[in-house]
Amino acid sequence: MNVLLPTHPSSFSEFPLHHHDQHNNPASPHTSSSRMGSRKRKADDDGIDDSMSISPQNSPAFAPRTIARPAKRSRANEVAGRPLALPRLLETLDAESLRSVLQTICERHPQIGAEVVDSAPRPSVAATIDVLSSYQEKLREAFPFGGNAGSDYAYNRVKQPLLDLIEALTDFTPHYLPPHETQPTVSLNYLDNATKVIHDLPEWDSQSHKHHKDNAYDEISRAWALVISEASKRGGGFQLHSGGWDQRLQKHNEQSGGRMQVAVNALGSELSWMGGGGGSRDPNSIRNQLLNGTYGAPSGS
What pTM, to 2 d.p., does this model score? Predict the structure, then answer.
């Protein structure tokens, strides 16, 4: 009895194992890595150059380039606070502030002060009178409202501005006297205006306060006498003779209450020898009174 036995393959090689592996065995990492490595080695063996890859990053056209960055701004151009330059600073200073700064520098550095004195233009009579007027204004503003303007209370209120004005007169007057000032007309013009300032000084009730104005009249009278003496040496005193200064001085003496007699006497002595035309036509002028012999005589005689 013949029994048919199923035929079996004689070896496992007759059946491809990869079909069985695909359905029954999951792919392991090692298998994938092995296959990738095999393909990579094959590509290398085939002589494929990576630099010729179609990848954009590996293309020569996309080679990395160095991009120039803008340089940092200099610190000198950065916005930061800084002091004003000297020309701009001087533009902002008013006259009072500028004088204060200049005076401080001159006091610290005497050589600079001497240079300023040599370089500064000579002050005009008008500029000096403006300064004296400013002191007068400060004096008037210091007086109390109402009450007696000549009282001790008023004196105490205005004492400092009063002293400042008198000190300014004392300082300015020698500048306009010979030999420093060589033009008699300039000297006489200053003295005429300075005397008006003294006329406006307050009259005090107390005798102890009257010396301020009395001393001011005495100093300005001696200044008049010096200028008259020097002017009489120039052209025979023609400027005194033709300028009507005898009349002006006479009015100043009357307004001062006779406290400028020294100046009047100096003018009389210088003009007493002068006669003839060209003089003042006023019969009451000091010159004509001296020439007529009526100077000092009671009026109406």
Answer: 0.64
